């Protein structure tokens, strides 16, 4: 009959009775890129409410094609979601968020639960980037009894934040604890963290049935329409870069730049000078003879100075490196300054070296240590800027 016809729309045109609403929120880059590809891949008819801080979507045709509405901020999204739940028969809300910023998801759940309509809730979390792994590393260093104690409190902690009796603390046990309350999937940047030697067995026990390795190879199965949709979402098309790779027969190298918080332009110029030497005792994986590309940090203001000093080919710094990964526009090799970028890089791309700030204590630096544990870099290829002096 008509009422059971899942494709039959009500007067709103896009929300049907007993339907599911999909919510997408993120303040960073990686979850947004992953959520975009998920939307394109699943191609569902569900109404989608989206708020991505770094990727405002203004293209109405694009939004219509995914049955989506975009919100400048999360409070506006929540207001709209609440009114949909109150005025329509919404069966389920699937919330897609950023793991590190699980507090944003808590605020949405809080609002849904406060309506008292018993709406089903399902959660998808996508890692923000390297931050979760630094925290996981630190967590793994705690005595097992302490880890277990913390985990034992997490369900109540989350519940109290949803009830509004306690602010949400984004500790490891809390951000990875939602499967104790709702059907949850954690889309992890590096699900293999649980296969390393780091002692994380208690946490693994809580979430092992709820984790998925983030996918980077969607483009191998996307048709041209889906690819174009991704280019429209991100405003990025990899064709130019792919042409530049092919312009010479040499292998391609991308230098991963940082911002002034970590290194000056001169220091990065010096690293490149050293890396070009065929027999440097410091950088043993030389970049001599490779075509040199420069991918500056999105927030760096001195990129042109570095590009000019070594006559490199520029990759527009505002493009998130993850967009190159997603669109299969990767070089043969990379190297550069410590960055979250290295966490998502497939191991088919050679990682020649990573440089850190001069005063870094390598053996006690959680970020470096977790990168070594995950085989992102060899200990010998971890360098400090001061190694050059
Ligand atoms: N050369 C770079 C460096 C960074 N990005 C993007 O910024 C995000 C955060 O990187 P951090 O270096 O601050 O850890 C990263 O996930 C990339 O999206 C970049 O595109 N190019
Ligand atoms: Zn080339």
Automatic annotation (TrEMBL):
<feature type="binding site">
    <location>
        <position position="295"/>
    </location>
    <ligand>
        <name>CMP</name>
    </ligand>
</feature>
<keyword id="KW-0808">Transferase</keyword>
<feature type="binding site">
    <location>
        <position position="322"/>
    </location>
    <ligand>
        <name>CMP</name>
    </ligand>
</feature>
<feature type="binding site">
    <location>
        <position position="250"/>
    </location>
    <ligand>
        <name>Zn(2+)</name>
    </ligand>
</feature>
<protein>
    <submittedName>
        <fullName>Alpha-/beta-galactoside alpha-2,3-sialyltransferase</fullName>
    </submittedName>
</protein>
<dbReference type="InterPro" id="IPR021574">
    <property type="entry name" value="PM0188"/>
</dbReference>
<feature type="binding site">
    <location>
        <position position="340"/>
    </location>
    <ligand>
        <name>CMP</name>
    </ligand>
</feature>
<feature type="binding site">
    <location>
        <position position="321"/>
    </location>
    <ligand>
        <name>CMP</name>
    </ligand>
</feature>
<dbReference type="InterPro" id="IPR043078">
    <property type="entry name" value="Sialyltransferase_N"/>
</dbReference>
<dbReference type="GO" id="GO:0016757">
    <property type="term" value="F:glycosyltransferase activity"/>
</dbReference>
<feature type="binding site">
    <location>
        <position position="257"/>
    </location>
    <ligand>
        <name>CMP</name>
    </ligand>
</feature>
<keyword id="KW-0732">Signal</keyword>
<feature type="binding site">
    <location>
        <position position="248"/>
    </location>
    <ligand>
        <name>Zn(2+)</name>
    </ligand>
</feature>
<dbReference type="Pfam" id="PF11477">
    <property type="entry name" value="PM0188"/>
</dbReference>
<feature type="binding site">
    <location>
        <position position="297"/>
    </location>
    <ligand>
        <name>CMP</name>
    </ligand>
</feature>
<keyword id="KW-0479">Metal-binding</keyword>
<keyword id="KW-0862">Zinc</keyword>
<feature type="binding site">
    <location>
        <position position="291"/>
    </location>
    <ligand>
        <name>Zn(2+)</name>
    </ligand>
</feature>
<keyword id="KW-0328">Glycosyltransferase</keyword>
<feature type="binding site">
    <location>
        <position position="339"/>
    </location>
    <ligand>
        <name>CMP</name>
    </ligand>
</feature>
<dbReference type="GO" id="GO:0046872">
    <property type="term" value="F:metal ion binding"/>
</dbReference>
């Amino acid at each position: 009959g008509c009422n059971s016809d899942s494709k039959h729309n009500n007067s709103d045109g896009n929300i049907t009775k007993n339907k599911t609403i999909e919510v997408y929120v993120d303040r960073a880059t990686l979850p947004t890129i992953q959520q975009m590809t998920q939307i394109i891949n699943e191609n569902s008819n569900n109404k989608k409410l989206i708020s991505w801080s770094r990727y405002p979507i203004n293209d109405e045709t694009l939004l219509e094609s995914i049955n989506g509405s975009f919100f400048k901020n999360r409070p506006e999204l929540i207001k709209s979601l609440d009114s949909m739940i109150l005025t329509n028969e919404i069966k389920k809300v699937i919330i897609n968020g950023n793991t590190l910023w699980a507090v944003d998801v808590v605020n949405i759940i809080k609002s849904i639960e406060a309506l008292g309509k018993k709406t089903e809730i399902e959660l998808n979390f996508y890692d923000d980037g390297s931050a979760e792994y630094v925290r996981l590393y630190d967590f793994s260093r705690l005595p097992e009894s302490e880890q277990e104690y913390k985990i034992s409190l997490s369900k109540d902690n989350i519940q109290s934040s949803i009830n509004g009796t306690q602010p949400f603390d984004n500790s490891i046990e809390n951000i990875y604890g939602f499967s104790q309350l709702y059907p949850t999937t954690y889309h992890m940047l590096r699900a293999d963290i649980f296969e390393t030697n780091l002692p994380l067995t208690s946490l693994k026990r809580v979430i092992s049935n709820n984790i998925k390795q983030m996918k980077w190879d969607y483009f191998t199965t996307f048709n041209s329409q889906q690819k174009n949709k991704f280019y429209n979402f991100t405003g990025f098309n990899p064709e130019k870069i792919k042409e530049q790779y092919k312009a010479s027969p040499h292998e391609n190298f991308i230098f991963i730049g940082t911002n002034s918080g970590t290194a000056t332009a001169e220091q990065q110029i010096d690293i490149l000078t050293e890396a070009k030497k065929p027999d440097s005792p410091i950088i043993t994986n030389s970049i001599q003879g490779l075509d040199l590309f420069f991918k500056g940090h999105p927030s760096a203001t001195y990129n042109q100075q570095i590009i000019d000093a070594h006559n490199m080919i520029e990759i527009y710094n505002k493009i998130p490196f993850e967009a190159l990964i997603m669109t299969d526009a990767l070089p043969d090799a990379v190297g550069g300054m410590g960055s979250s970028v290295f966490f998502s890089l497939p191991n088919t791309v050679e990682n020649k070296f990573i440089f850190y700030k001069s005063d870094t204590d390598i053996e006690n630096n959680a970020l470096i240590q977790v990168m070594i544990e995950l085989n992102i870099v060899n200990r010998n290829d971890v360098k400090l800027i001061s190694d050059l002096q």
